[in-house]
UniProtKB/TrEMBL annotation:
This is EAL domain-containing protein. The lineage of its organism: Bacteria, Pseudomonadati, Pseudomonadota, Betaproteobacteria, Burkholderiales. Residues 24-278 form the EAL domain. The chain holds residues 524 to 812 of 812 of the full protein. It comes from the Bacteria.
């Protein structure tokens, strides 16, 4: 149909496509500005153990857009990846996370916590990634042993040798690695065996219907068995109900994350909800300035 209009026909004359493209480039400009204007912030969600005690948190980025309000990462992370803005954005997240670890290191009730940071494929593939992480750790003074990086299976589509080399280097410095959204991507079992991982996160898509869909139940059990034999820890994501928790427990899962234990929230709200700020009282109320 486009051909009938001859060689000079621009595809962008499709009004719907044009509208989408315009919206995207507006959002891209906004995100570029937003990074400069410090409109991004981190929310934190607890990860709990079998006794439902907090063992760590995951940092989840948010964008306080001046007109649209709070924008979720599902809307802007893909755009940031396409445009390369993920590099400064990811670096900012890492710096914030390290600064948070330094705060926690001072207090006995928080110094054991692991902080997990999501790293996108494009960020991880950057040739300087290892050095950037190590520089950030030493500049902030954060303890590498408390930092965990969450990668996704999309990384396996390219240079696996490079991935293994980078992970190995960072692990030698004390960092840990988790494979996020496990089961939704491209992992082959042979890669899984070779990757220097510490943890798998069962994708929330499998947890959601685990009580009603026998296939999801089977997948969850299989992931737990697999992780057991590869000596990997497992976190189940998206746990919302006691029923899901019971099933996961009975299947051998020992770590959980989800609305049942706490929604992602600003750090002071998380600390309050988890009772992490009680011992020191308001003396530490300086975090938010
Ligand atoms: P993810 O790393 O798999 O994070 C888990 C997502 O599940 C989060 O969505 C969290 O809010 C949501 N969630 C947690 N518990 C529950 C629950 O019980 N029920 C339901 N329905 N959802 C739950 P969020 O914060 O919107 O983040 C979405 C994704 O965006 C993340 O998925 C991660 O892939 C990406 N992301 C977030 N922050 C960053 C970041 O700083 N850098 C990069 N590269 N990606 C990020
Ligand atoms: Mg994650
Ligand atoms: Mg996930
Ligand atoms: Mg996800």
């Amino acid at each position: 149909q486009a051909k009938a209009h001859g060689r000079n026909t621009l595809r962008f004359f499709d009004p719907q496509m044009q509208a989408a493209a315009t919206a995207r480039s507006v959002l891209e400009g906004d995100l570029r500005q937003g990074l400069l204007r410090q409109e991004l912030l981190l929310y934190y969600q607890p990860v709990v153990n079998d006794q439902q005690r907090i063992t760590g948190v995951e940092a989840l980025v948010r964008w306080a857009h001046p007109q649209r309000g709070m924008v979720s990462p599902g809307e802007f992370i893909p755009l940031a990846e396409q445009t390369g803005l993920i590099l400064p954005l990811g670096q900012w997240v890492l710096e914030q996370a390290c600064a948070q670890l330094v705060q926690w290191a001072d207090r006995p009730e928080t110094r054991h916590l692991t902080l997990s940071v999501n790293v996108s494929a494009r960020q991880f593939r950057h040739p300087d990634f290892v050095q950037l992480v190590l520089d950030t750790l030493s500049r902030t003074g954060a303890n590498a042993r408390c930092l965990q990086l969450e990668l996704t299976e999309s990384l396996l589509l390219t240079d696996v040798e490079d991935m293994i080399a980078k992970m190995t280097e960072l692990r030698m410095e004390g960092l840990r690695f988790s494979l996020d959204d496990f089961g939704t991507g491209y992992s082959s079992l042979s890669y899984l065996k070779r990757l220097p991982l510490d943890q798998l996160k069962i994708d929330q898509g499998f947890v959601r219907d685990v009580l009603v869909d026998p296939n999801d139940a089977a997948i969850v059990r299989t992931i737990l068995a697999l992780a057991g034999s590869l000596d990997l820890a497992v976190v189940a994501e998206g746990v919302e109900t006691e029923g899901q928790l019971d099933f996961l427990r009975q299947s051998g899962c020992r770590a959980f994350q989800g609305y049942l234990f706490g929604r992602p929230a600003p750090i002071d709200r998380l600390e309050q909800a988890q009772g992490l700020s009680l011992a020191t009282g308001s003396a530490h109320g300086t975090i938010s300035g």
